[in-house]
């Protein structure tokens, strides 16, 4: 909230309380004058009331007049457009400033830029993995993700060994060394994020030791990020006792800015970049050719549906890369793992086939009246398995800010063991239960996944590691010099347009 000294403090104090402006009259020398003139108690009371009316009413009107000028003046108060968009609680947190042009322009610059770069995901579109530590929780049903992290351990160690220079983090003495900041994007509830962070921090520690700097290792801070609805309580409850880093939670969508500029030294993300920030609007628009009626995914859907998913994915990845380009320091590292579809032969099984099976279960439940057809038609899973080619094209479209050091495809079949039907079903229940409960209600979840288990038995190829063409593209990028990061801001629109025009084969 903006406040200024329009009346001397000896007369008024403008105070904001519970969203209302209250005018207090302080130090009014009424009693002093009344005593000088020898007035009686009754006369003194009347003088006080008259004086309060004389000063309070004009002061109140003056306050509102000046407030109106502050909000509407086009030069001195340019921050008004930003302030109007903030909630009352956010306004209360703004600093109290004097009415100067410099301060107003500063607010405009900082808040407007932040507002444009932050991607606010509506709570209705914020889906997290199943929290807690129960039998259906993500913490108990994420063995497949653990396999991906174990499979990439060697590559993470090599990337840090080749590109992380410990001398850049030493500034003469320990007191002046800045912390090494690592962000894990899409951390969920653990424990897989802990395994990944252990690999990264131990590799960094080894780098310092190999350079003879073991005694000068700076503090390491790990920033755990996921959706605002993520169960961070379970995550922090299970933090490893012997960790060598400080832990911080950063809720929010990684498709927008999450951290201050040039503060991150390393960004890691595993199996999270396949999730869309939102469903394309046309998917549930009955008047659109991309309306996905009777299905919950682009699998086996018309081309328009697949194109809508692909377009949204390109937008999200463009926003993701642009945000990281500003947050990473020069020569900072990004270690990303993309689940990708690698279907070549007719006998190959698309990993997205699983959503077709779940969709048929929902349609069957609608036919017997357990749920409505309208509910099924308005439900879609915001997840995509892009092709390797599509991911490479998107990444190369951001070469102004990043240099792609290398990419390597990890075969899914070499990273996980053959699951049972129950384990396989539990994987997807942990991932989808939250959004299913929010859309259909918790009462249908058990029946849905019982039906899904029967579908998996009818179609066992979905669990055949040799036929299921789900691979992982491990990609190492290095942020270019700071000048290129600044240039990236100036060319955001052109780059995003380029990304939107790239070809994309998601099926």
TrEMBL record:
The keyword Zinc-finger does not apply. GO terms for biological process: methylation. InterPro entries: MeTrfase_7, MeTrfase_capping, SAM-dependent_MTases_sf. This is S-adenosylmethionine-dependent methyltransferase. The keyword Transferase applies. Keywords: Magnesium, Membrane, Metal-binding, Methyltransferase, Transferase, Transmembrane, Transmembrane helix. It comes from Arachis hypogaea (Peanut). The chain crosses the membrane at residues 20-39, 46-66. It comes from the Eukaryota. GO terms for molecular function: metal ion binding; methyltransferase activity.
